[in-house]
Design brief:
Blueprint (H helix, E strand, L loop, with lengths): L1 H19 L3 H11 L1 H26 L1 E7 L4 E4 L2 E12 L3 E12 L2 E6 L2 E5 L4 E5 L1 E4 L3 E10 L7 E9 L1 H19 L5 H17 L1
Helix pairs in contact: 1-2, 1-3, 2-3, 3-4
């Protein structure tokens, strides 16, 4: 469906380009402007396809694991390896924070340092888990700090998720909304357009 929709854009823009001499981007813009509902519908179809790709990636290819590692220990999931570097537990004015530092590698190459943590709010007596996230168009890698003990004991427990293609879901959602806006955008008043055209003709005739 995606290839057919893109072909419709290409065919329409190419035909207008040959007829009017406009560049392809300008021809596509003007073509969509004159047929908002039709091309807005095409954009919506593209958004649906992108969202479907993201959902398939989440439902079929998502993987997860959980492990307790000492300082310097590693957890591997797919192409990713995360190394637990350190843990700090400290108080602020309104909360207690347990903050870990982990280094993440993909295919053996270092990609960054992340800080999964848990914040406990004294007044609300509630905890909030803040993940460490590496997010790209290809995939997301989430790290959650689940539990911790003294470093001299068993170590720290992490839960790790690998979500391929999840950002295609978000991209598809934005494309879907954009297509809906294009399709729903009101057309110009044909009567006003006719009046303007007559005024231009009148001015040209006087000149």
């Amino acid at each position: 469906m995606l290839s057919v929709t893109l072909y419709e854009f290409w065919r329409g823009a190419l035909a207008r380009h040959r007829k009017s001499g406009e560049s392809l981007p300008v021809a596509l813009w003007n073509l969509a402007g004159r047929n908002r509902r039709r091309y807005g519908g095409y954009i919506i179809h593209i958004g649906v396809v992108l969202m479907a790709v993201g959902i398939i990636g989440i439902e079929i290819f998502q993987t997860e694991t959980q492990g307790t590692v000492p300082e310097g220990g590693e957890i591997t999931l797919g192409d990713y390896t995360m190394r637990f570097d350190s843990l700090a537990v400290f108080d602020t004015d309104d909360r207690n924070v347990a903050r870990s530092v982990v280094s993440v590698y993909k295919d053996g190459e270092y990609v960054g340092e992340y800080y999964p943590r848990r914040d406990y709010y004294y007044e609300a007596q509630q905890s909030m888990t803040i993940p460490g996230v590496r997010s790209t168009m290809e995939d997301d890698f989430y790290m959650l700090l689940v539990d911790w003990e003294a470093i001299s004991s068993a170590g720290v427990t992490f839960k790790v998720f690998h979500n391929p293609l999840i950002n295609w879901l978000w991209l598809g959602g934005f494309v879907f909304i954009f297509g809906t806006m294009v399709a729903a955008w009101p057309d110009k008043d044909p009567e006003q357009a006719l009046v303007r055209a007559r005024k231009r003709s009148y001015v040209s005739a006087e000149a």
